[in-house]
Design brief:
454 residues; alpha/beta; Amidase signature (AS) enzymes; 38% helix; 13% strand; binds glutamine; protein biosynthesis; ATP-binding; AS_sf; EC 6.3.5.7
Amino acid sequence: HLDRIGEVDDHVHAFLNVDADGALAAAREVDAALADGQAPASPIAGVPLALKDVLTTQGLPTTCGSKTLENWIPPYDSTVTRKLREAGVPILGKTNMDEFAMGSSTENSAFGPTHNPWDHGRIPGGSGGGSAASLAAFEAPLAIGTDTGGSIRQPGAVTGTVGVKPTYGGVSRYGLVAFSSSLDQAGPCARTVLDAALLHEVIGGWDPLDSTSINAPVPPVVAAAREGLRGDLKGVKVGVVKEFSGEGYQAGVQRSFEGAVEQLTALGAEVVEVSCPNFVYALPAYYLIAPSEASSNLARFDAMRYGLRVADDGSHSAEEVMSATREAGFGPEVKRRIMLGTYALSSGYYDAYYGSAQKVRTLISRDFAAAFEKVDVLVSPTTPTTAFKIGERVDDPMAMYLADLCTIPANLAGNAAMSVPSGLSDEDGLPVGLQIMAPALADDRLYRVGAAYE
Ligand code: GLN
């Protein structure tokens, strides 16, 4: 995999940093333990992985795709990083991402875009485009992403790979640099559903260092994937979300989705149409809640505690240093989100914006609850279009935001969701994703249905 990275990453740019020495040392340790007759530390011991650059790695730079953290080397590992190391998983390096995970194309990275391996002129999705592209380009067999509004699933869909947003609280956020704390969730990315399940069981579980982590066992996702691979979905009820079709959905995406629904039926599932009327308000609610939380979380980048500091020549006040550092360190999308969030939280507007968005969030959770009384999982296209061209949406934030139309409800409600490849669009030959959504703590249902389908 290191050789492959050397061959193709100049063109793909999935990685911001490659840690060849660290990865080889970890792999040698696994070899030595096996030679010594010890049992492998996990089923994926020795299988290398690409880690999104938003999770801290002790002694290795963690930039979050931002100039603000360009030279920051964390003094500690995130819980996900620690679990990977303990499981004997060599970490190949850190992957490119939209700055602070804000974006849908990886074009908001301060270090240049990642290219979709299917067509280098197109985006690999975002914010975790680097992780998804590393899988599609065969630079890594496993990767970690984070999903606040779709950043694991949408890149999975447009690169033809599998991406899972676990139940909120299912994977620790300790050491995951916060964007929107009530939505952020780390999860597995892979080329097959079973591979994702094996990784999910390694990174999941309760963590006393994250107060929002759930004190419950990891759902039996590997067993569920194996069950699904038998190709029988008899007794499984699947709901098609009525609201996620029609205008704005490419015909090729729509046809691929219809084909997926037919295949689920052929596998024995009972498929019905379900209405979730409040899902259409998920996008506007998200773009109030996520920027509000971001405006608070990003206040920590004050030019004193982490990373970049400019105008630090002794002739400026602390406030001037802070202001100049933020001006130089944050890109335009990050500034836009901070402005939006600060506005939505300001005293005269709080009830009208943030307060209303939180109410919509409750309505979306109720839509899910009502749907899951009737069906076991919900399905939709993961994203309305296939990979768009690099540059196409950079000057149009609203068009960029639409990429997450279908993925955001699961984040707002905190439940589990997966994107699994559903073939290539008959319009442009590019990958399309099928989204599967399950109730909180029922992540295993995603794996059963996803593995049967893929
Ligand atoms: N594209 C969405 C945004 O820009 C989601 C990002 C994410 O999931 N991190 O906020």
